[in-house]
Amino acid sequence: GRIDKSGTLAFKGRLALWYASPLINRKDEPASGQTAYDANKAALDTATAAGYKLLTPYSKIWQTKGSANTEAIIFNNYFYPDHAYSMNTVMPWCMTQGNACRCLPLIWQVLAFPRIDGSAMAMGTPIGLDTSKLKADPAYNAAFFTDLVKNMDPRFYASIFIPGTTYPSIQ
Fold first, then answer.
1. Are 105 and 160 in contact (CB under 8 A)?
2. I need a labelling partner for 117 at 20 to 30 A (CA). Which of 44, 96, 123, 146 fits?
3. What are the phi and psi torsion angles at 157 (to 5°)?
4. Residue of 126 and 87 predicted with greater confidence
């Protein structure tokens, strides 16, 4: 398929966010953040006007294909063997053998989800995880994992698999 205006603006917004991030915007210039906000607001408004919206129930997001998935602005249909999903280029060899990486989220993906009350998963650092405390402070460790198991938004449990969550299936 082809990318539409909503997809183009969403991609532009994502690039603007990268440009505004501390990775590139090392002087923390506020104009970059405003540009990123404006680009993403334009993308959201265009996508909403085009009929894109959150899928209800979210638990069906992985079983809803193509244009029936109202959340999928840009998507890639993977198929085996010619166009299979692979993380082999970005993850260590030991984690990609036997397709083990297909259910392995990266920490920024986990921390992107809000808690049930809508608050951010921010705990200590800008990305929300103080790894030094996680290693050394048993109370911090317990609180972090309690949030993951009990206090996350339902969309988290439909996307990220941790002990105690149900793996979604078409059956």
1. yes
2. 44
3. -70, -20
4. 87
Is there a contact between 42 and 5 (Cβ–Cβ < 8 Å)?
A: no
The 10s digit of each residue's pLDDT in 51-105 is: 999 888 877 877 787 778 898 888 777 677 777 766 566 655 555 565 555 555 6
DSSP 20: H
Encoded tokens for 4: 């539409």
What's the angle, vertex CA 71, arms to CA 19 and CA 110, rounded to 5? 60
Give the model's pLDDT for residue 144.
78
Q: pLDDT-derived band of residue 125, with 50, 70 and 90 as boundaries? A: very low
Residue in 71, 58, 22 with CA at minimum distance from that of residue 155: 58
Can you read off the two tokens belonging to residue 78?
């993977």
Does residue 5 register a pLDDT over 90? yes
The gap between the terminal CA atoms of the chain, to the nearest Å, is 28
The one-letter amino acid at 88: N
Backbone angles phi, psi at 131, to 5 degrees: -65, -30
pLDDT of residue 126: 47
**Scanning the structure block, which residue is given the tokens 């069906």?**
60
